[in-house]
Amino acid sequence: MGVETSPKIVIVDESPIRAAILVEGLREAGFTGVTHISEMHNLLARIYALDPDVILIDLENPSRDVLEQMFQVSRAVRRPIAMFVDQSDSASIQASVDAGVSAYIVDGLKKERIKPILDLCISRFNAFSKLQDELERTKSALEDRKVIDRAKGIVMKLKGLTEDEAYVLLRSTAMREKKKIGEIAQSIVTASELLK
Amino acid sequence: MTGQPLCIGFIPLVDAAALIVAVDKGFAAAEGLDVTLVREVSWSNVRDKLNIGLFDAAHLLAPVAIASSLGLGHVKVPIVAPFNLGLNGNAITVSPALHVAIMGEISGDPFDPMATALALARVVAARRKSGAEPLTFGMTFPFSTHNYQLRFWMAAGGVDPDEDVRLVVLPPPYMVDSLANGHVDAFCVGAPWNSVAVDLGVGHILHFVSDVLVRAAEKVLAVRQSWSEKNPAVLAALIRAHFRAAEFIEDPQNRAEAARILAQPERIGVDADVILRTLDGRLKISPDGTMRESNRYLLVGREGAARPDPVQAAWLYAQMVRWGQASISPEALDVAKAVFRPDLYDAALGLKEGARNGSSDAIGAFAGPPFDDTDIAGHLAAFTIGRRKP
What we know:
Strand order of the largest sheet of chain A: 2-1-3-5-4
Helix content of chain A: 55-70%
Strand order of the largest sheet of chain B: 2-1-3-11-4
Strand content of chain B: 15-25%
Oligomer: heterodimer
Number of domains of chain A: 2
Radius of gyration of chain A: 25 Å
Distance between the termini of chain A: 74 Å
């Protein structure tokens, strides 16, 4: 393989959005030979047909164990595969496992050429999970608001308060009990359902 | 009171029973441990997270613990196994079509693994003659008991696992689908997946692995050697919690409760009845409802099953040598045997040194000479099929 050619990269990921983010990032960085595999059936045969230099797989994917077979010497394996991270490189393993991605590299590809690929994947994986966290937080904030609105209604009715007064009561209770206002609201809603 | 926090990884399989019950039934808490269990999707993940310290301990395939200590297939990280989570527990399941083919060629007892292996050899020969695709067998990991058990069985009948059939790694949850879709013709996997295949009518259990090997170390409680040296008291507490859990599970009166604990969605997540059948060694082996019982199907703690036996580690290392995964050397054999630590087990439980695990032939294989853990080369010389490294 010449020094100039872009290494062939395969991304094994069942999440189409994350894979798209990865492919885009790699292409922007000049890695043009990127293929995404989302179908896990016959995974090894698909990979051998593409004959990649680098394989990236997300750690939530049970098929990671299938890739481990590539380390084995057998007739099916044409090119030996090695893990990029070597004995001395535990920081790289740590970073990639933390991010949720693992890389398998075909022997012979220079370590210096792999590093930017892996670093890019780690940062994109981290960015993706941050996005997901934000989405989750937004979702739960919306849920909280619904519950708080219901709790406010209950308090207004039972204690004859205005909406603002009901909210202040919920908030001060939450502060006093060192809890989230959503939790206080939830316990009011639960209690009122129990006492119905 | 807050206990010592520990993070422990596991794969949802019935042989994680002692670990899960130790935590969920409070045996770990009683030892002052505050354990968080993390369910994982692949053995590679369990291995990596244990290696880099995200897990303090893990439910791990015994051969992976040895491979990791030898630096085979991955980064070298010395692992110790102070508690054996189970002996046996796997089964070989075949598709209805392959079952018919084997039964058509068999002479002798269908529960005799030599009879089935010889029948398989005839099926393989007939398929080759007719130009059919080679049979495909699923197993769970290159360094797995399932891989070695399948190979040992078929090679005894004259089938070369690397030349005559295909062996492929499949994640356990995909096994049943792959059998149903015809992507594999058979597989070797742990509970509950064999039973799931039979219940769905897509497989026949041909053998319990205890037909092939009387005692086979399966999963171990694994920790990094460095961690075990830094945390001896915590490790001893963890071993005791596992010991109590294994005792609990082995009492027939507690089996139903144990099965309910294991069946929880965030643990193994399958029907409690399937798990109970596994613990009882009472399995439906055919879609027509035929049952088979064995008191050797899965041993969680009885018959000294929980005490790590270095002879078992030596046998697993010998399989790595036989199939070309490891080179043979006395040093590597010593490293492999030192992964299994009966001394840590004995010390934690206050047992006297020199306790024994069992009979003189600790393995009890159906073919070949009794296993001699002091002479791997001599032992392997008795087997003609293999991929020994030059």
